[in-house]
Amino acid sequence: MLAGSDASTPVRAPQIWHWRGYPIAYQRAGETGPAIVLVHGFGACWGHWRRNLPALGQECRVFALDLIGFGASAKPQPGGEIDYTFAAWSQLLADFCREVVGEPAFLIGNSIGCVVIFQTAVDAPLQVRGLAALNCSLRLLHDRKRQSLPWYRQWGAPVLQQILANRAIGQFFFKQIARPGTVKKILRQAYVNPDAVTDELVDLLLAPAQDPGAMDVFLAFTRYSQGPLPEDLLPQITCPTLFLWGEKDPWEPLALGRRLAEYPCVEDFIVLPNVGHCPQDEAPEQVNPLLLNWIRRHC
Question: pLDDT (tens digit, 9 = 90+) per residue, 63-80?
């Protein structure tokens, strides 16, 4: 298999690392070269990088982890010992680099995973060699951004958040979403190529939703409209940063994403033609070579 190829790797049981007493699942590929840590988006898991691990592992030591609350990792009750915030995920990721990776790493994220890696670069800069952000979440429903939305979205999101705070309603809502048909419809919005939305992908993303605690994590994050925005964190970042952006992302508009290229830490902003919100899975044949070339440049 050539480096940069889009071949999938068989989904196998992940390894487990314990963070603050909670099991955190991760997978790895490659034995030599610089370290990379892959961070998924909301509702996803390490398996969303299954088409990148083998290719990147040809030249690098690659790790893909499930953030606490997602995938096969622990899902403790929100509001107890764990808050599902970017600050908490940043601490987890920095500790993962210290204890599992064992050296500073290139952090690569998709969607909200980008905000996680930005926060980590701010909180623990000595653990981060560089950042690559794939279709970064712009957090358009953040309290400070709602004023720029149409009036019906300004009011609609807070009302929905209040409704979902009712546990019975939230449980019903979650059960409607956590169905194969619904997940497939959502993915077909996010992906331009319908052939990339396979039953394997649906099963991969849906399985963790059956875990105890998954509903509470989902509802907790849907009500999280504070915390940092990308534009809060990027001015504080000093390591080299790369943006890759699927040009047809329906959720994170390219025109708004381009504004993030203005910050000094950003070296490149590369548009991926005819690709949606999850380039690493939809177009690994484009993404893998770009990531490898960028990492080679900084080694």
Answer: 999 999 999 999 999 877
